Amino acid sequence: MNNLDTLVFLEFSFENYPFSFFSRWLVLAIAMVRFYMQKGTYKGLYKTIQKTLKFFQTFAVLEVVHCAVGIVHTSVLVTGVQVSSRIFMVWFITHSIKQIQNEESVILFLVVWTVTEITRYSFYTFNLLNHLPYFIKWARYNFFIILYPVGVAGELLTIHAALPYVKKTGIFSLRLPNKYNVSFDYYYFLIIVMASYIPCKYYYTLIIPRTQ
Amino acid sequence: MKHYEVEILDAKTRDKLCFLDKVEPNATIAEIKNLFTKSHPQWYPARQSLRLDPKGKSLKDEDVLQNLPVGTTATLYFRDLGAQISWVTVFLTEYAGPLLIYLLFYFRVPFIYGPKYDFTSSKHSVVHLACICHSFHYVKRLLETIFVHRFSHGTMPLRNIFKNCTYYWGFAAWMAYYINHPLYTPPTYGDEQVKLALIIFLFCQLGNFSIHIALRNLRPAGSKTRKIPYPTKNPFTWLFLLVSCPNYTYEVGSWIGFAIMTQCLPVALFSLVGFIQMTIWAKGSTAAI
């Protein structure tokens, strides 16, 4: 894992930023496949790749900056929402609620994210090199049709699995009485998030074709 | 006297929608809108935007045909503003909501706090004071809407009522829930804090009202004139020297007072959001001046 981290760090300093992002996700994919081949199970996989995943996914914030500055011609709002939802999953669900890290649904969305990002960044990389193989272009627009609903399913199932632990521990929640006279229940917040997934993600699918 | 001919085209498609002949040179845009409605009754005057250029600014109702840069055959472009609702209706609805909603929480109507608290009363005096202040504020707003304000636009788009009511009613319910909660915690510094907050609140309510009266007196009844506001003998109006919309300043001040009085974070957030919105409005007003 350490050697891969070093490799990635070198990639990161590349001028061709999509290539560095691409190689990161490829690194992650390789790590996942290696783990499964060595251990024969996905239990414990999350624990192994979590540092790398958190590192990569948090750096995706750069993408929002790229949109804001104008290097990439996608709307800041669309990218911002996408990146926020990823960061939410990684930090506020799988990192914070450790008991769900071995759920199948986690592997499901990790695989989806990995394939999606590898496709997306190789598309950008080839675009920048002005040599776009037809397959990459095809994959970019068509994988999405399967990957998107599968990814949504993985994320929703994971949040659902986290609910009982949230209720029990009261994590991220503020109860009455307190001197600010306000309360926040993370459990109900997650239920609202789950309910808004369908309309929000559906709305996103309408936007994506337009941003190309 | 030479008559004008007016043709009205759709601003987007350039379709010929209406042709008016024998229009008086001193006809106003308002009169032309009325004539247009005759041939297209679904587009009542309030939802018509007529302009000289398809992408230009809307002409005002008071503009006179012969004073516009047009020949004797004038071409006007039409844009549908969508279903309209009167400002008065919107204001009355968006203010009546918080007044009633807060009272539902104050009286602890069933299904909010749990059966053992139904119709009970808070033991904290600040909670009763808060209810009086909140209710007073919205009664004042309702009365001002009916008797004080003079609106330059009669209408606004219909969808605004849903947006505005969600905002006002939503925040009212959110803050009322905590202030009237059985587990409400009174202010940290007790009576001193409440007294100070009440003084701020009353001062700002009075200030806000003074500005509303001053603005009303700038605009004679039935007119749509806009005059630049200036400070008068009333000390509350001296704020015009510092800001262009002191009524907004006093409004934020009132809510800050209320937030200090109740020591309730949702009230502080409501003040903040209101402050941001009113700053945007004030910048628009300053630009207009």
From TrEMBL, chain A:
GO molecular function: very-long-chain (3R)-3-hydroxyacyl-CoA dehydratase activity
Catalytic activity: a very-long-chain (3R)-3-hydroxyacyl-CoA = a very-long-chain (2E)-enoyl-CoA + H2O; (3R)-hydroxyhexadecanoyl-CoA = (2E)-hexadecenoyl-CoA + H2O
Annotated protein name in UniProt: Very-long-chain (3R)-3-hydroxyacyl-CoA dehydratase
UniProt record, GO biological process: fatty acid elongation; sphingolipid biosynthetic process; very long-chain fatty acid biosynthetic process
Gene: HACD1
Keyword Translocase among record annotations: no
Transmembrane feature ranges: 20-37, 58-81, 106-129, 141-166, 186-204
Keyword Transmembrane applies: yes
UniProt membrane topology term: Multi-pass membrane protein
Role description: Catalyzes the third of the four reactions of the long-chain fatty acids elongation cycle. This endoplasmic reticulum-bound enzymatic process, allows the addition of two carbons to the chain of long- and very long-chain fatty acids/VLCFAs per cycle. This enzyme catalyzes the dehydration of the 3-hydroxyacyl-CoA intermediate into trans-2,3-enoyl-CoA, within each cycle of fatty acid elongation. Thereby, it participates to the production of VLCFAs of different chain lengths that are involved in multiple biological processes as precursors of membrane lipids and lipid mediators.
Enzyme Commission code: 4.2.1.134
Main EC class the enzyme belongs to: lyase
A family per Pfam: PTPLA
UniProtKB/TrEMBL annotation, chain B:
Keywords in alphabetical order: Acetylation, Endoplasmic reticulum, Fatty acid biosynthesis, Fatty acid metabolism, Lipid biosynthesis, Lipid metabolism, Membrane, NADP, Oxidoreductase, Phosphoprotein, Transmembrane, Transmembrane helix
Span of the signal peptide: none
Organism listed in the record: Gopherus evgoodei
Domain (3-oxo-5-alpha-steroid 4-dehydrogenase C-terminal) ranges: 155-283
Catalysed reaction, written as an equation: (2E,7Z,10Z,13Z,16Z,19Z)-docosahexaenoyl-CoA + NADPH + H(+) = (7Z,10Z,13Z,16Z,19Z)-docosapentaenoyl-CoA + NADP(+); (2E)-hexadecenoyl-CoA + NADPH + H(+) = hexadecanoyl-CoA + NADP(+); (2E,7Z,10Z,13Z,16Z)-docosapentaenoyl-CoA + NADPH + H(+) = (7Z,10Z,13Z,16Z)-docosatetraenoyl-CoA + NADP(+); (2E,8Z,11Z,14Z)-eicosatetraenoyl-CoA + NADPH + H(+) = (8Z,11Z,14Z)-eicosatrienoyl-CoA + NADP(+)
Membrane topology type: Multi-pass membrane protein
One GO term describing the cellular component: endoplasmic reticulum membrane
Entries under Pfam families matching the protein: Steroid_dh (PF02544), TECR_N (PF21696)
Main subcellular location of this protein, as a coarse class: endoplasmic reticulum
One GO molecular-function entry: very-long-chain enoyl-CoA reductase activity
Pathway connected to this protein: Lipid metabolism; sphingolipid metabolism; Lipid metabolism; fatty acid biosynthesis; Sphingolipid metabolism
Domain TECR-like N-terminal, chain residue ranges per copy: 5-80
PANTHER family referenced in this protein's UniProt entry, alphabetically: 3-OXO-5-ALPHA-STEROID 4-DEHYDROGENASE, VERY-LONG-CHAIN ENOYL-COA REDUCTASE
EC code: 1.3.1.93
Lineage: Eukaryota, Metazoa, Chordata, Craniata, Vertebrata
PROSITE patterns: S5A_REDUCTASE (PS50244)
Enzyme superclass (EC): oxidoreductase
Name of this protein: Very-long-chain enoyl-CoA reductase
Known role: Involved in both the production of very long-chain fatty acids for sphingolipid synthesis and the degradation of the sphingosine moiety in sphingolipids through the sphingosine 1-phosphate metabolic pathway. Catalyzes the last of the four reactions of the long-chain fatty acids elongation cycle. This endoplasmic reticulum-bound enzymatic process, allows the addition of 2 carbons to the chain of long- and very long-chain fatty acids/VLCFAs per cycle.
